[in-house]
């Protein structure tokens, strides 16, 4: 029998009411009408679950921490049901050879059908110097990343480290930290950037839900981010925006405009 996301959520104790709530919230987050909540629920109940491999490179791990410690129990439970099923070296129970076997098994069984979520980025400098860092199962992270990326359906660059490079890529960047889309020899899987430091956890679930429901990748902006979440700036939606447009803003502390 094919396992669906709904099966997994129910097994993890998520009630049907919470599941439907999640579908409604996800439809709203994607900018869709409430009518799509039913379509999302139907897809999650009937379509095979999309496996997710979650790899970690050079990072602070707060992208994971942010949703593990999410104040909203529904968000946390749903996200953990969706993403940590197959492999996440930070929060999975398995360790050592057992954990590595899961990666190989997933790649073999779901080749071309799993999503590779990358948190953090690889340090490429060691490829030139022969140095060793970010070692997972005795191999550099870069090796694990390339191997998993070549068989993935899509790659999600989760967080600013994976999307842009972030702190560890700042000059002089001694490790050669490189954002995922600039890593050479990564294969042809499309890359979806979900930047943020840390990003909003619900964006990850919504991206996976979108792929499952509509059987295609979300449309991306010119920087590779899902348009449905990154097309508008907070600045454009701020209720004080009209003051800005009218030139009514402060340029220096305590200047003339601040006194009006
Ligand atoms: S993007 Fe920010 S929160 Fe996420 S791992 Fe990098 S430094 Fe940490």
Structural class: alpha/beta
Can you tell me the CATH architecture? 3-Layer(aba) Sandwich
Distance between the termini: 68 Å
Report the major sheet. 5 strands, parallel
CATH class: Alpha Beta
CATH topology: Rossmann fold
Name the quaternary structure. single chain
What is the helix/strand order? Answer: HHHEHHEHEHEEHEHEHHHHH
Our estimate of the beta-strand percent is: 5-15%
Count of runs of 4 or more consecutive helical residues: 14
Rg over CA atoms: 20 Å
Low-pLDDT runs of 5+ residues are: none
- Tell me which ligands are bound: iron/sulfur cluster
Molecular structure report:
The chain has 260 residues and is of the alpha/beta class. The protein has one domain: 3-Layer(aba) Sandwich (Rossmann fold). Helix content is 43%, strand content 10%. The strands form two sheets. A five-stranded parallel β-sheet has the order 2-1-3-6-7, sandwiched between helices. The longest helix is centred in the N-terminal third of the chain and has 14 residues. The chain starts with a helix and ends with a helix. The mean pLDDT is 88. It binds iron/sulfur cluster. Iron/sulfur cluster binds next to helix 4 and helix 9. The site of iron/sulfur cluster has 14 residues, from helix 4 and helix 9.
Reconstruct the topology from this structure.
Elements: H1 5-11, H2 16-29, H3 36-46, E1 52-56, H4 62-68, H5 73-83, E2 87-88, H6 96-109, E3 115-119, H7 126-129, E4 135-136, E5 139-140, H8 141-149, E6 154-158, H9 160-163, E7 191-194, H10 201-214, H11 227-230, H12 234-237, H13 241-245, H14 256-259
Parallel strand pairs: 1-2, 1-3, 3-6, 6-7
Antiparallel strand pairs: 4-5
This protein binds iron/sulfur cluster.
The site of iron/sulfur cluster has 14 residues, from α4 and α9.
């Amino acid at each position: 029998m094919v396992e669906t996301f709904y099966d997994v959520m129910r097994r993890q104790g998520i009630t049907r009411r919470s599941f439907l709530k999640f579908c409604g919230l996800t439809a709203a987050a994607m900018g869709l009408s409430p009518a799509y909540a039913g379509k999302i629920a139907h897809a999650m109940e009937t379509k095979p679950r999309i496996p997710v491999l979650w790899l970690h490179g050079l990072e602070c791990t707060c992208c994971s921490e942010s949703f593990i410690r999410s104040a909203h129990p529904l968000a946390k439970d749903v996200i953990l049901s969706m993403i940590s099923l197959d492999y996440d070296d930070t929060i999975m129970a398995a360790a050592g050879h057992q954990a590595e076997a899961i990666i190989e098994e997933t790649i073999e069984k779901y080749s071309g059908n799993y999503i590779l979520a990358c948190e953090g980025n690889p340090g490429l400098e060691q490829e030139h110097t022969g140095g060793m860092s970010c070692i997972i199962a005795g191999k550099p992270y870069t090796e694990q990343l390339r191997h998993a990326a070549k068989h993935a359906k899509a790659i999600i660059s989760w967080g600013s480290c994976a999307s842009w490079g972030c702190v560890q890529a700042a000059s002089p960047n001694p490790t050669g930290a490189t954002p995922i889309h600039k890593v050479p020899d990564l294969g042809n899987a499309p890359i979806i950037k979900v930047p943020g430091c840390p990003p909003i956890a619900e964006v990850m679930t919504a991206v996976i839900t979108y792929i499952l429901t509509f059987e295609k990748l979300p449309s991306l902006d010119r920087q590779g981010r899902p348009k449905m979440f990154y097309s508008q700036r907070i600045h454009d939606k701020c209720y004080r925006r009209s003051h800005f447009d009218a030139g009514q803003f402060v340029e220096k502390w305590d200047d003339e405009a601040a006194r009006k």
